[in-house]
Amino acid sequence: MLKHQIEYGEHLKMKILLVIASVLGLSAQAAIIYNPVSTGTRELVAGELLIKVMVEASNLGSNEVEVGEIYFPENYQGSSHNHGAIEIFYVLSGRMNHVVNDKDHILEPGMVGIVRPGDTVQHKVLDNQPVKALVIWAPGGEVERLRKVFPTERILAQ
Question: Less crowded by CB within 10 Å, the N or C end of the chain?
Fold first, then answer.
């Protein structure tokens, strides 16, 4: 059962990425130099909070979108913050309270949470289990902003 859920999650991640690329008008024929495959470009770390950056300008060849895999440790209670881009969360495992403009939204695996520029968001882990989610920022630029507030950055092999 767990293997099926993991395979389904990976399949769904790819579908989401393809839809985003289509919506943004990205094309393999574009005259942009990019890496067609990525296992991640870098990790941003703040304590046990981890963002593995999967897609950004360095491997996409442009800055239309950024994609990361985020890991929130159990009992994580983030502070309220804003983003300069649309932020889309797709929860892969665990449960979280996705607080947008002071309104609670419980996200479970298979659910999406959306934040628009100017909204205030706070992430809270529920049920004493960590949360793993796919996070998408459009347009790109959030990774550089986050890099300034995460104390540790690890560059991954490209």
Answer: N
49 forms beta bridges with 46
Q: Say what the pTM is.
A: 0.80
C-alpha triplet 136, 141, 145: angle, nearest 5°: 105
4 compared with 147, residue with greater pLDDT: 147
pLDDT digits (tens, 9 = 90+) for 110-156: 999 999 999 999 999 998 999 999 999 999 999 999 999 999 999 99
Region 70-81: mean pLDDT is 96
Is the separation of the CB atoms in 82 and 158 below 8 Å?
no
